[in-house]
Automatic annotation (TrEMBL):
The chain holds residues 74 to 373 of 374 of the full protein. It comes from Propioniciclava soli. Part of the signal recognition particle protein translocation system, which is composed of SRP and FtsY. Keywords: Cell membrane, Cytoplasm, GTP-binding, Hydrolase, Membrane, Nucleotide-binding, Receptor. Belongs to the GTP-binding SRP family. FtsY subfamily. The lineage of its organism: Bacteria, Bacillati, Actinomycetota, Actinomycetes, Propionibacteriales. It is a peripheral membrane protein. It catalyses: GTP + H2O = GDP + phosphate + H(+). This is Signal recognition particle receptor FtsY. Residues 273-286 form the SRP54-type proteins GTP-binding domain.
Amino acid sequence: MARLRRRLASSNNALARALGDLLSSSRLDADVWDDFEATLIGSDLGVGPTTELVDNLRRELAIDGVDDPARAGRVLHAELVKLVDPSLDRALNDTGADGLPAVVLVVGVNGTGKTTTVGKLARVLVAEGKTVLLGAADTFRAAAADQLQTWGDRVGVDTIRGAEGADPASVAFEAVNAGVERGVDVVLIDTAGRLHNKANLMDELGKIRRVISRRAPVTECLLLLDATTGQNGLVQARVFNDVTDVTGIVLSKLDGSAKGGIVVQVQRELGVPVKFIGLGEGVDDLAPFTAEGFVDGLLG
Ligand code: GDP
């Protein structure tokens, strides 16, 4: 426990430092709790979850001091794990219906890390022995299909692409069609993230889904959120969840100075599990999300 306190105290993560302060306070007075609460809110954990956590901790820990720091550390850890709901199913739905490929649609605002994540996810699936095909349905950005194909080449899977400016739904259909014909296990589809207008976004994603499902149903729709954008991520998650059926979230850029507390808010509000986290720009920088790992990360 002394080691945990030292590690927390020297962390450059504000939340970890606040936890360290809390655990080393000889008196847990109102000021200590206020500071702790402010840091939690500043970490994008949200007001509701923060209040709940602080109330639980205040109840569980000795009222006027951390009489048993080892127990305090365990209580804190357990309460944080509960906040991220360890019971949510976080497995990628990568089994297609009736011998058809699984179809994974990757959506999100531009720059959140969709293309990169498709590449990393392909790597994960290939390593599991699955056959994979990529579909470049972001036809608006000139370099998007090239970027995806580069990832495909790196991972050793084919990329189906259309002409620049082609209808994204037709490219997505071509990819799924090729996936069915080739008998691959999973088709990963990269989409454009043009959030200039909610109605357009709904039309675009709705059309992609409709057209694809003539060939094979979408088994998973992963929403990319950039952890460095904080509360903005929550706003984006609301919009995307309104316009399409999001089944999982990938939180990218948690390797930076991100405030991963947004995980808690998004899961609570939308009931959608975070399934993967992005930890860098490299091909192996995608990890399954686990509540334990998340809490360890929060604790610095
Ligand atoms: P898209 O526009 O949504 O397809 O986003 P991209 O996949 O092109 O990613 C945008 C930028 O974010 C690129 O420079 C990526 O290398 C970078 N990026 C993506 N995921 C991560 C991550 O997990 N960590 C870091 N540090 N950078 C990332």
